[in-house]
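[job 4417] fold queue: 2 targets
>>> target A
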Amino acid sequence: MCGPAKGGQLTDRFSGTWRLVSFVGHGADGRETTDYGPTPRGCLMYDQGGRTSVHITHSDRKPFKSGDPFRASPEELKDAFEKYFSYFGTYTVDESAGTVTHHVEGASNPNYAGTDQRRFFTWQGDRLALSTPPGEGTGVTYIATWERQP
C-alpha cells in the first residue's frame, strides 16, 4: 500500500527532505558505535500527506564486481545488505511526547515491515535528531541527525 496516511497529528515542521549528518549508537556501557561508518549517507523524506521514506548507507559500500546484482557473489550480497537500510510507510507525530512514529509498510529488512518504529525527536536549528528508545532490542540507543535540504 502506498496511499495517504490515516489518522494522527502531522506537523509542517517535519515535511521536507533531510540529509543524514551522523548515525551514532550509544551503548549502556558508554561506548559509541558507527555501524554505517564514519561518514554515512542517507536521505529522509516526510511529506505533508503523512508519508515517509528512509534510506541509510555505509560510507564505504562497494559496487558489485560484475556490475549486476543478479550475478553478485554471496559475499557481495551480504555486504550490500548489511551496509544499506531503508523503509517506507506513514508517520504520525505526538508533539507532547516528543515522538514521531514511522508505520512501516515495506523495508530492506523484512522484519521491519508491519512494525511501528517510534523515535524521540529534538530540533537543533535546521537539524532534526531522531533517537531510538533507550536500548530497544540491542542495548544501544541510536541517534540519527538529519539536516533539512532546500
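>>> target B
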Amino acid sequence: MAGKLFLVATPIGNLEDITLRAIRVLGEADLIAAEDTRKSGRLLKHLQISKPLISYFEHNQKLREDLLLRELSGGKNVALICDAGTPGLSDPGADIARAAIEAGVEVIAIPGASALLTALTVSGMNQGSFCFEGFLPKVKSARRKSISALAEEKRVMVFYEAPHRLLATLTDLAEIFGGDRRIAVCRELTKMFEEIRRGGIGEMIDYFTGQAPRGEFTLIVEGFREGPISMDWNALEQELNALLSSGLSRKAASRELAARYKLPSKKIYQIGLKEENNHAI
C-alpha cells in the first residue's frame, strides 16, 4: 500500500508559528524532504525530531522526484517542507505534489504560516480578492513585460522579492504603475526585525535608496483604478507627440506620462499606436 505525501507548513520566521499537527506529522514521517537540509535541520533539532532528511530543491528536483515516488510507492510516508512557510508556493513543492497525484499517491496539506497571507492581512489593502504573482523574472526586460501585463489588474497584487532586486523591481513598478500607486512593503515577517512600510511606490524607492534592503520581502500592491473621468485624451496625445518629437522613444514617453498622470503606461502606449495608425491610413 502506497504511503502518503504531506505538504507541511513551517514557520516563516518565529519558531513558535508551527502547529501541533505539523510537529506530529514531522515526527511520524519516514522521510523528510527539505529545500535546504541545513536550515531545516536546525528547525528539526529545535523540535527534537530526528528523521532521515534529504534535499529537494530547484536544481535536483527531477532526480529526487523519482526517489521520492519510489519511497512513496513502497509505503513510506514523506513530509515535504520548504525553507519557510507553505510548500508549493514559489518553490518546487508543486511539482512533486503533481507527480504524486498522477502516480495515485494521496497528498495531504498540513496548513500553517504563509508570508503571502501574513503580508496581505497587515497591508491594509485586502479587499477580499487578490492575485499572487510570486517572484518576478530576474531579467529586467522580462520583469517589465510581466509588470506591464498587470497594468490594468484591478485586484490587489502580491509579489515576493529578494533584497538585491528590490529597488529594481520598485523602480519598474513605479514607471509602469505610477509612483503614487499604494504599496505595502513587508520585510522579515514574524522575525525580530520585522518591518512593514506603507505608502506610495515612489516613497518606498526613496526610503530603500537610503536604507539598504535586507531580508526577504513581500510586496502588496494596490490594483489599478481608472484615471479621472475628466482626463483630456486629446491633450494627452499632444503631450505624447511632443515627447516623441523631442527624441524620446514611444516606450519612454509612455512611461513618463504614466507617472505624471497615474495611468498605465500600456494604455498611453496604445493611444500613441492608434494615432500612428490613423495617420498611416
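[job 4417] complete. Note on B: The longest helix spans residues 265-280.
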